[in-house]
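User: Hello, can you help with two protein structures?

Assistant: Certainly.
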Amino acid sequence: MSKNFELLQQAGWHQEYFDGLPSPPLTENRSTPVLPERLPIRNDPTSALIRKVFLDSRESRARMVMFCGAARGVGCTWTCANTAKALANSVAGRICVIDANFAVPSLHSYFSAQLSAGFSDALLESAPSQQFAVQFANTNLWFLPAGLRCKRVLAFSDNSLLESHFRELRSAFDYLLVDVAALPPGPLAKSIGRVVDGAVLVLESSGIAANALLQARKLFHRARVQLFGVVLNQRTPATVLDRLLK
């Protein structure tokens, strides 16, 4: 049993543990569209996450999932972006990946060269959010950037409007993957938590503290957000995942 898994157990985690997702290469060109030909679900860690969260027929399938980092800089945005691309390779339905991290919007760097009008603009203009979504590389994947008025949205008080926009997006797409700010959750993240099916927590594999994991677990519990799993970002794959998925 790995040390990471032992720490997760000490913190009371019983959800799926998706170990071995690699961090992005230091020389990665984020603006280059990379979406290979649709392939069947494989047994790598990213595919395991997709299968367990979105495609497992033994449970109710999730359609709207938020990705949240235990802290800034743990690879949550990269995980959300690449999970969306891998899901697009695996299903025929319409997918939208949404940047709802208005404090530090960065998801656009994995899909386009610069930040453009998007979710924040839709909220402030009371315009349909889906009209700001951009199709990625002529595929079944769309991207909704955080937009150009993120600072104004951070002071947004109409949470019912935010939730209404997410319900609208849910009716327009088959799957929604939402990148949100790192823990602890602010008012906007809590509002998003009320409308999603559940969440995936992203941590960095080095320097995990059981107390920090326990605190994260309590935050999700208090927000009444179902936690689908834990992703440990690291550069070399681990073997514990295979044991957990048996």
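That covers the first. Now for the second protein you mentioned:
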Amino acid sequence: MKSKEFRQYISQEVRRGAIDTARCPHAEQCGGCSFQDIAYVDQVQAKARALNAIWQESGYDGPPLTVVASPDAYEYRTRMDYVATKGRFGLRMRGKFNYIVDLETCHLIPPAGFAAAQAVWQLIGERGLPDYNIRTHEGFLRYVVVRRSPQNEFMLAAVTSAAPHDQQMGEVAALALAQPEVVSFHWLINDSLTDLSFGEPHRYWGLPTLAMQVGNATLQIGPNTFFQNNVHLLLPLLDAVRDGLEMPGIELNKVCVADLYGGVGTIALHLAPAVGEVVCVEAVAESVALAQLNIVANNVQNVRAIAQDVLPYLSQQAPGVHPLVVADPPRTGLGPEVCRELLRIAPQRIVYVSCNPLTQIDDLQILAEAYTLRSLTGYDMFPHTLHLESLAILDRR
């Protein structure tokens, strides 16, 4: 099944569910949600049916697969990217990239976070700095990004075109930091023709990072940093990853675990109290720097952050160095070359977190040469959307 077909299948299955009253009046148009008008319990069951369908198509004949629901289907996101264009502030219309749904509120983040972002948009406009037009490539403000911690503190980022407006943006920053629970304001520059809500850091006011308290660890993230996007389901997923490493014949407190695509150290620091050592492998320099900061700040002695792509890192490892491997790759998956290196270094168990079940299936079909799928569980990290994560545990035969 191809990616588009899978999304269509999920949509068809979800639409079989009971109609619910959407909290947002724009639920039928806004691209931020696809299914807010469907009862959440039916969304989860539909995603479970879709997950079972694609695995059965690939030859899976194990017990029925389940999907863990988000404890709260609203105010769950740790990041939202709001578009500013043509006097409108909101999200892109579903299926129509050039159209913007003008929002008065958004139920995917706490009300204070949306209000602060909307206030920044209004403040920038009041200072005579126009919204960006993606058709003509004229204007200034492209996006206002909200990053939110589990403790409901906020980092705001204004993503703009070229930057000769320091005085006005300094005034905006001061007013932004006066908003409730806003601790940081960043000014990012995207002066390309590419429509992205990320940019090169230009200036910041307030704190340089946002503190994410997850379990016993405090993780600092920046405006461009990848971080899991469901504040309610993150800790249960991390606990499942940690518990998934336990297997007969391996003493966790004596082994070195490889945490591949480790980001700012979220998984590594959660594993640290239970294992001998964790090597956090990450290619993005900003994330590696933050991982190193987080290791020191949390006073953890048994985690190392390595700035390297996963493939060359694995190619340098001898078989048996990492009896246990955790992998949380991007949507493209591990890919054939990384899978072949995993087959070569032969960990006893691989715990594989995926945000794209289709590429996960492709990878597991390669790893099936030496590994058996022990368990697979879905996680609804993105309620009201077509997205689904899954956690696979593989044992070497």
